[in-house]
Amino acid sequence: MTEHHMACPASHQLANALRFLAIDAVEQAKSGHPGAPMGMADIAEVLWRGHLKHNPLNPAWPDRDRFVLSNGHASMLLYALLHLSGYRLGIDELKNFRQMGSRTPGHPEVGLTDGIETTTGPLGQGLANAVGMALAEKLLAQRFNRPGFAVVDHRTWAFLGDGCLMEGISHEVCSLAGVWGLDKLVCFYDDNGISIDGHVAGWFRDDTAGRFKAYGWQVIGPVDGHDAAALEQAISQARAGSGKPTLIICRTTIGWGSPTKAGSHDVHGAPLGAAEIAATRAALGWPHAPFEIPEDIRAAWDHRLAGAAVEGEWQAMFARYRSAHRQLADDFERGAQGGLPEAWPKIRASLLLRASDRQGAVATRKSSQNCLDLLVDALPELLGGSADLTGSNLTAGKHSLAWHEAKNSEVPNYLSYGVREFGMAAIMNGVALHRGLIPYGGTFAVFSDYSRNAIRMSALMRQRVIHVLTHDSIGLGEDGPTHQPVEHAGSLRAIPGLDLWRPCDELETAVAWALALERNDGPSALMLSRQNLPQYSAAAGKADDIGRGGYILSEAEGPLRAVIIATGSEVTLAMAAQAELQAQGVGVRVVSMPCTRRFDQQPAAWKKQVLPGEICRVAIEAALPDFWWKYVGLDGEVLGIAEFGESAPAAELFAYFGLTASHLTQTVLRHVAH
User: Fold this and answer.
1) What span, in angstroms and rounded, lies between the C-alpha atoms of 529 and 469?
2) pLDDT for the residue 9
3) How far apart, in Å, are the Cα atoms of 48 and each of 66, 154, 302?
4) Cα(376)–Cα(373) distance, rounded to whole angstroms?
5) Residue 443 in contact with residue 395, Cβ under 8 Å?
């Protein structure tokens, strides 16, 4: 491939095609970031034309290399690469950069544009996604490859800048990449010394090479990021195999080619302007009109025939693999498409039956582990983990095998992420994006704040990622307000597309797991109790209704006077209050609402049936009360916690904050008396 590269038109002119597509698109939009595309164009040209394994005619080919632009503000570099390589991204889309309805938004978005592997923009998370993709490749290769059949054999390449390395998440994920020995991960650090505020020496003086060597990475460079031969040599060294992930430090000039703005923050996030663009065209010997690419350069970039040929070789090998290992081939293809096994209906039925048979009080975190005891064995694509809280989150099932405990040919299905909540969540996004595995990971609910931006990104990208968030309320007790999640349920419910489940018992927990696994258009989070809770929904025979998100758990005896809405541990209080009220002749319905988003999606008839408009409503949750007013109305009432918690045993805390059956009873009586 190197010989083909050298036989093509001069390398700098091939890179200039990228530069000027970026320059022209940013200028036309009057918005964008031309500096990084101009500075990284030479690196991109050498990588994409000489080393990247991909097929523009089939962007979803499972064994393609993954390319991640972690510094997503340089999006026009990626759009130019996709356009020139032959992906379904025409020149009109580049001309429509950053405009409504285009497939070239300000930052790359997966699912919108062919060839984009992840949505980047929040710096550092693209790098974390790349670690997740490389992790998935390594695990899938262990599971599916057989002698003579390397059906999983690709690399993950990532571009990143100073901002990505300044973000703390880079430490979390790069440390793990070194521990895991992700030797097919290659990152190019655009070391241009510039960020938005100017020269980074005023705030970023890390010994980056020393830092990554300490993580256990192979570090190459610094190399001249504008020297094609030096870049070829660095990439070849990275491909040679060291057993470690590789960081190639590339010294570049931001805005390379711009006569007066190169090397300054002036070119980072603003158009060059007509005069500077004209001067840059003259300086780089590019006399062509905006968005015009000479045919010889366009032909040298076109990768459609070469990409189809490479994939064709793989498809022929996979056909032989199918003949020799039919079940493995079927499982591989199913995983690549995100499907569940053919036996899933039976697995699901068994899961719900076991949950329905549960007797006695059980913490929902333990109920979740009971589910995992079945699911991990039945679904080899499950990849679990915890941020150093396995024994508290109960995220390891009977059939979980931790990475650090696997021996010889054993394929691990569980990761100890260490105290790295944000890194864990973002790595899981990368695993999900790669396809083939379904990631779940645990931490305390209060620490979802550390993970929140990655949880938001999984929702934005519509990825099947499952967050297990235990110790869901003041019910955790003596650890005090630093560990008691008061505002977190409402905060997570506010993320569009995230299913937040707060189950009251084992059957609700099992339904939450089943629907989280069946969902292929977004993430789910399970908020689970530390304290033991009674079994209610199974006794009521409500398995089918739970999936609607909100349902009648216990109907009133006699005329209906009020509705109590509750979630999680507070369902116990609602049921006790119902009994007290009915003893006084007041008919009360208890509605369990484990997932408000699911309930909101139900037909109006269902919502009206569950929450009749003319009946008094009271909601109770050991959390910030603001969220619940949309269900109770201004004439209703919400019992919650509008302040931070306290350090005390759980029972004392519930009494202190007025979250008791007696207080709930008096609240309902006060409302029905009017």
Assistant:
1) 9
2) 53
3) 11, 14, 11
4) 6
5) no
* Residue 602 per-residue DSSP state: S
> Cα separation of 52 and 65, whole Å?
6
Neighbours of 365 (CB within 10 A): 24
DSSP 385: E
Contact 401, 448 (CB under 8 A): no
Please list the active-site residues: 421
Angle between helices 448-460 and 125-144 (to 10 degrees): 80
Which stretches of 539-621 are assigned E, i.e. beta strand? 551-554, 560-566, 587-592, 616-620
Q: What is the DSSP letter of 367?
A: H
Residues 6+ apart with CB under 8 A from 657: 474, 622, 641
Cis-peptide into 222, omega within 30 deg: yes
For residue 671, give Cα distances in angstroms to 561, 610, 625: 10, 19, 18
* Collapsed DSSP state (helix, strand, coil) of residue 618: strand
Residue 84's identity, in one-letter code, is L
Give the DSSP H/E element, type plus range, for residue 637. Answer: strand 637-639
In 3D space, the residue among 565, 576, 538, 569 whose CA is nearest the CA of residue 663 turns out to be: 576
The model's pLDDT over 94-141, given as tens digits with 9 standing for 90+, comes to 999 999 999 999 999 999 999 999 999 999 999 999 999 999 999 999
Are the CB atoms for 126 and 160 separated by under 8 Å?
yes
Q: CA 205, CA 208: separation in Å to the nearest integer?
A: 8
CA dist 35 and 32 (Å) reads 9
Radius of gyration of the chain (CA): 28
Tokens representing 217? 């990475």
Q: Determine the straight-line distance between the first and last CA of the chain, rounded to whole angstroms.
A: 82
* Tokens read off for 425: 């969540």
Cα 507 to Cα 54: distance, rounded to the nearest angstrom: 45
Q: What is the pTM of this model?
A: 0.97
**Phi/psi at 224 (nearest 5 deg)?**
-75, 110
404 CB-near residues (< 8 Å, 6+ apart):
416
pLDDT band at 541 (very low <50, low <70, confident <90, very high): confident
CA distance 603 to 67: 42
Which residues pair with residue 199 across a beta bridge? Answer: 194
Nearest 10 degrees: Cα torsion 277, 280, 286, 291: -30
Rounded to an integer, what distance in angstroms lies between the CA atom of residue 500 and that of residue 585? 35
**Strands in 493-535 per DSSP E:** 499-501, 524-528, 532-533
- CA–CA separation, 434 vs 431, rounded Å? 5
- Report the alpha-carbon distance of residue 488 to residue 452 in Å, rounded: 10
**Model confidence over 172-200: pLDDT tens digits?**
999 999 999 999 999 999 999 999 999 99
Output the CA angle 661-662-663, nearest 5 degrees: 95
| Cα distance between residue 446 and residue 392, in whole Å | 13
d(CA 508, CA 564): 18
